[in-house]
Amino acid sequence: MRKSTLFAIVFSAGIFSTLVEQATAEKLPIVLWHGMGDTCCFPFSLGGVRKFLESEIGVYVKSIKIGNSIAEDFKSGYLVHPNQQVEKVCSDLSSDPKLSNGFNGIGFSQGGQFMRALVQRCSDLRMNNLITLGGQHQGVFGLPNCPSLSSRTCDRFRQLLNYAAYTELMQNFLVQATYWHDPLNEAKYKNSSTFLADINNELSINDTYIDNLQRLNKFVMVRFNKDSIVQPLESQWFGYYIPGQDRETQNLKESEIFIEDRLGLKKMDEQNRIVFLECEGNHLQFTKEWFRESLFPYLK
């Protein structure tokens, strides 16, 4: 073989190798945040999602765990205030060198609004795309069929929320109270909510929240059309009940948050950076085929 031909082969192989390395390097890691009644690592839920993403996309996938054990992580979904969780996760992710060049975030159920709070409050992180699956961005007013190990637990939480969601005790004790949104008493909700009203800029405007949210490339919200847990369904697309009643709903663009652009969502929508996706299943019920087709384009 002539030297010039050998050199061309070696040179071409070198370019190909470099291109492969660059393509691999351009794939961003993925961070997952589980919802109520789940943990970071159950093999039938987020543990399985993590393996699926690692094998299909071939990137580093971190599934957030609150506490030092699976049991503590499970309890955190009910008993560790979202503000504490967001602060801890911000610190943990900021110190992970594998995330220093950015990552894509996926929040499952209540993990969706927690992940958004992380974007708004944790300025050191570089999240590219935020995907929320069944998130409750405008909160909930009811917990039918809530995921728990016991139906009695669901009933007990529901009773507590109906009668005492906005007491200081409940706001500090029960996670779901912090995003309980009573449309029949908007003033009480805005003045008493220790989490959701704040991250939605409903009582006052935090410009940092707006600026940090604007750094996202895409904000993708997935609604499950047969959801039997999130009430109302529209909260998954940042809609909610029309204030003053609990029957008729309005979409994001009809809400005060959007019209007054209290979070910068109107600007993001004008720039085509908000994506509304649908899935026909019940809460967090999706197939691998749907996930590949619908979400993989936002995980590059």
Shape, per Cα inertia axes: globular
Determine the strand fraction and express it as a percent band: 5-15%
What oligomeric assembly is this protein in?
single chain
CATH class identity? Alpha Beta
Count of separate structural domains: 1
Q: What is the mean predicted local confidence, pLDDT?
A: 90
CATH fold assignment:
Rossmann fold
Low-confidence stretches: 1-24
Helix content: 40-55%
- The helix/strand order is HEHEHHEHEHHHHHEEEHHEH
- Beginning-to-end CA distance, first to last residue: 41 Å
Count of DSSP-assigned helices = 13
The CATH architecture designation is 3-Layer(aba) Sandwich
Order of strands across the main sheet: 2-1-3-4-5-8
Radius of gyration: 21 Å
Task: Find the CATH superfamily.
Answer: Alpha/Beta hydrolase fold, catalytic domain
Please report the total strand number as a whole number. Answer: 8
Specify the structural class. Answer: alpha/beta
Largest sheet: 6 strands, parallel
Catalytic activity: S-hexadecanoyl-L-cysteinyl-[protein] + H2O = L-cysteinyl-[protein] + hexadecanoate + H(+)
Pfam family, one: Palm_thioest
Keywords: Disulfide bond, Glycoprotein, Hydrolase, Signal
Signal peptide: 1-25
